[in-house]
Amino acid sequence: MVKLEFGNQIVKIDAGELISYQVDGHEFIHQKGSPGWSSADTEMFPIIGPVNEADFMVQVPKGQAIQDQHGHLRLMTYSLIENTDLTAVFEKVYQANTKIKNKKYPKKSDKALLSWPYNFRFKKSFRLDSEGLEISFKIDGELGMPYMLGYHPAFKLQTTKPIIKTKDKSINLDEVLAVGSRALEVANCNEITLLDNHSITLKTEGFDHFMCWTEVGNMICIEPITFYPYRVKQQNLHEGFQNLDNEASFKLQLIPFIL
Fold this sequence. Notes:
Elements: E1 2-6, E2 9-14, E3 17-23, E4 26-27, E5 43-44, E6 57-60, E7 63-66, E8 79-83, E9 87-94, E10 100-101, E11 113-114, E12 120-129, E13 132-141, E14 146-147, E15 150-151, E16 154-156, E17 163-165, E18 170-172, H1 173-179, E19 184-186, E20 191-195, E21 200-205, E22 209-213, E23 219-225, E24 242-243, E25 247-256
Antiparallel strand pairs: 1-2, 2-3, 3-4, 5-15, 6-7, 8-9, 9-12, 10-11, 12-13, 13-25, 14-24, 16-23, 17-18, 17-20, 19-22, 20-21, 21-25, 22-23
């Protein structure tokens, strides 16, 4: 367990997963064991979205990659490589074509092992300061490697009528619930605010969109993404890829209103 502290802010990270962000004792992060989701955050990489209708295959320049929903990165284990009172850096390293055990097999998938035909190194960094919590991602890998990236944090809800607000729209919880497992797209957006009894703003760099998901009333996931996967059929998911230019960086700032 890694713990970061700055003034009235406390962050707890378990094996690279953000499990707690408290400000003045208020908890912003969905807690494991509560209804809704068994995790608190995860990363979606190198794909976002399901591929069950495409026989769990994704087209890449090197052929077909065997993947499952949201990619295989989240099935790998982070290593802590740096840690101070205010920062923590975690890393996952993947060697091309290494077989990764699929936790969805056999109940939700017929693919026992997943793989990706490219090498990559994935870093997730946390930094706490007077403005809030910054979470950043760095991808190093083969030149031209196709990828999508999404960050999937879950926020604890304190009221029955929270509002998600962007610069030009407001979204209520019922609208997110109505979309169900597909998640509600919030396109062309790099700043979004969750208005609850204690509100928090998410500002991004590198991500182009958000999607919002929940199936319960006590939590909501507000997810920065590079591509919304339901724009295309699963067989055409490759249309949403970016191509790596040796490395790529992404950033999310969590800025609470009660600092």
